[in-house]
Design a protein that fits this description.
Length: about 150
Amino acid sequence: MTNKISKVFLAADHRGVGLKLYLIEMLNAAGYQTVDLGASDPTTPVDFPDVAADLANAMMGDNAARGILICGTGAGMEIAANRYRHIRASRCDHPEQARDDRFHDDINVLALAADDIDIEVAYLCAQAFLESPFDDIERRRRRLEKIS
C-alpha cells in the first residue's frame, strides 16, 4: 500500500452495490482507509450522476484522495465523473489498463462495470490503480493542465 493516498472513496449505483462492498472489505484488509459514499440497497434505483457528484464533492480539495465508482456499465460513472475539473476518471476492465491509465494520465478515479467484470479482476484493477505511480514528466503534466 502506498502512503501517499489519504482515503479511497467508493460509491456505486444500485447495480454496483455488491461489488462496492466486496472492494471495501478487500481494501480495508489491505490497509487502505475507505469511505463508503453509498448506495447501500441494490433494490432501490439510484441515478449514477448523483453518485458521481457525491464522490467528486468528497474528493474536492484532497489531491491525495482516490475514488472508485461502480455502475452496471462503468461508462455512465466515467462520463458523469469527468464533468468535474478535478476528476480524471477512466473505466478499466483489467489491471494493466488501470496501471497504464494511472501512469500516463494520472487518473484519480477508477470506474468499474459491475455487470461485466469478475470481482477478483475488479480487485486487481483497484490494486493496480492504487499502487501505480504517475509518470510525472513535463509532457504529461502539460497535457493534464490542458484538461484541468
